[in-house]
Write a sequence for this structure.
C-alpha cells in the first residue's frame, strides 16, 4: 500500500482500509512518510519511505521562507523511488492511494511497472484542476491493472484508457475515526470557539480549496438570519479568494475561522459545536468529510456535485441543494435552521446508521481483496461493482 503523505484525509482512509485488510488476513506493507501519524494495526507493517521538509525545524522554516518547499519535497520524493521500487518487487499487489503531485506519481508508477509490479490505484478524485494534470491522470490510469472509484458518478469520468479496468468500491465509514477524537460536549465546544450557545451553526471542514465553496457559503450566510459558519481546516487558497465576503462575515460576528492542520481531537470539537456540515463543492467525487460528518452524527448539506448525492438521503440524512448555486444553498441552509437542532440531530443519527449499513470497512476490505485476487488471476475488472 502506497500513501505518501502520512497525514490528512487520504491517510485517514488508508489507515482504515489497511486495518480492515489486516483483519481479513492480508499482510500489508504500508509505504508512507517517515513522520506519519499512523497507529499500529495487526497485519500492517509501516515503512517510512518518503522524507519531507516540513514542521518547525530550522531547515523547514528556511525552506518555507524562500518558498522552496515544493521543489525540495519533489526532489526528496524522486530520491525515495528506488526504495519504493524495492518494496514493490517483493509485493504480490501494489495499491496506490494517489499522489500529491501527479507528474511525479507517474514517474513512480512507470518505475514500479518496469520492475514488474502489478499496480492497483484508487482514484479518490476523478477530476483534475488543470489540463496538464488531466493528461497525467490518464497516464496513471493506463498504467494501472485496475482503477478503483467510489461512486457511480466517478465511473463515467474514468479515462477511456482505463474504462475496461474500473472497479466501483464505495468509500468507507468513519465512525471509529470519529471516536478516536474522544467525546466533546456541544456547549463546551461552542464556548471554545466563541460561538453563541443558541445560534444555529454550520461547519465547513477540511482542506480549504477554492472549489470547496467557501465563497458560496459566505454569500449565502448573509441571507440566512442568525446562522453562524464555522470554518476549520488547512487553507489551500480559499481564504484569500473569499476576500471581502470573509471580512464582512467576521465583522458581523457570523463566522469563526480556524486555519491549520486539525487533529481528530480538534475535529471532535468542531463537529460537536455544529448542527450541520456543509459541502457546497463545485466539483466532487466522494468526500471523506461527508463520511466523517456521519461518523460524528451530523447531517450534511451538499451541492448535487459528482457522487455526493449518492451518499445522502434527502430529508433523512441531510439536505441536497436543488442546484449548485447560492440561491439553492440559501434555501437548504434556511431549511436546516427552521428544522431546528433536534431535527438536525435526528438526521445526524440517521446518517450514522446509513454509513454503518452501507459503508462498513469489513465489506469494503472484502471487496478490495476480491479485486486483488482478480488482478492476480488476470481476470478483467471491467465496470464491476464490488
Amino acid at each position: 500500500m502506497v500513501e505518501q503523505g502520512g497525514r490528512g484525509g487520504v491517510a485517514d482512509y488508508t489507515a482504515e482500509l489497511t486495518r480492515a485488510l489486516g483483519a481479513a488476513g492480508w499482510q500489508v506493507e504500508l509505504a508512507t512518510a517517515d513522520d506519519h501519524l499512523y497507529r499500529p494495526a495487526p497485519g500492517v507493517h509501516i515503512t517510512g519511505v518518503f522524507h519531507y521538509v516540513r514542521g518547525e525545524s530550522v531547515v523547514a522554516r528556511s525552506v518555507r521562507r524562500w518558498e522552496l518547499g515544493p521543489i525540495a519535497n519533489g526532489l526528496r520524493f524522486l530520491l525515495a523511488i528506488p526504495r519504493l521500487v524495492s518494496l514493490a518487487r517483493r509485493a504480490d499487489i501494489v495499491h496506490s492511494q494517489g499522489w500529491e503531485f501527479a507528474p511525479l506519481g507517474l514517474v513512480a508508477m512507470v518505475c514500479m511497472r518496469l520492475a514488474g509490479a502489478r499496480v492497483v490505484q484508487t482514484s479518490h478524485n476523478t477530476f483534475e484542476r488543470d489540463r496538464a494534470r488531466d493528461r497525467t491522470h490518464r497516464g496513471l490510469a493506463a498504467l494501472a491493472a485496475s482503477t478503483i472509484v467510489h461512486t457511480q458518478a466517478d465511473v463515467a469520468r474514468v479515462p477511456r484508457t482505463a474504462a475496461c479496468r474500473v472497479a466501483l468500491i464505495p468509500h468507507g465509514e468513519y465512525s471509529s475515526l470519529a471516536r478516536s477524537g474522544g467525546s466533546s460536549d456541544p456547549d463546551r465546544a461552542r464556548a471554545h470557539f466563541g460561538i453563541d450557545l443558541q445560534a444555529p451553526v454550520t461547519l465547513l471542514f477540511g482542506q480549504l480549496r477554492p472549489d470547496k465553496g467557501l465563497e458560496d457559503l459566505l454569500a449565502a450566510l448573509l441571507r440566512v438570519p442568525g446562522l453562524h459558519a464555522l470554518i476549520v481546516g488547512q487553507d489551500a487558497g480559499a481564504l484569500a479568494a473569499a476576500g471581502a465576503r470573509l471580512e464582512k462575515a467576521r465583522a458581523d460576528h457570523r463566522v469563526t475561522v480556524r486555519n491549520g492542520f486539525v487533529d481528530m481531537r480538534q475535529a471532535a470539537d468542531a463537529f460537536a459545536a455544529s448542527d450541520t456540515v456543509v459541502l457546497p463543492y463545485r466539483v466532487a467525487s466522494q468526500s471523506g468529510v461527508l463520511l466523517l460528518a456521519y461518523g460524528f452524527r451530523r447531517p450534511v448539506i451538499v451541492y448535487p456535485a459528482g457522487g455526493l448525492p449518492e451518499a445522502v438521503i434527502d430529508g433523512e440524512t441531510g439536505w441536497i441543494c436543488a442546484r449548485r448555486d447560492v440561491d439553492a444553498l440559501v434555501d437548504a441552509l434556511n431549511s436546516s435552521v427552521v428544522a431546528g437542532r433536534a431535527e438536525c440531530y435526528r438526521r445526524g443519527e440517521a446518517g450514522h446508521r446509513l454509513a454503518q449499513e452501507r459503508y462498513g470497512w469489513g465489506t469494503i476490505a472484502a471487496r478490495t481483496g476480491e479485486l486483488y485476487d482478480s488482478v492476480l488471476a488476470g481476470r478483467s475488472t471491467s465496470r464491476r461493482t464490488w
Remarks:
- The first helix runs from residue 9 to 23.
- The radius of gyration is 21 Å.
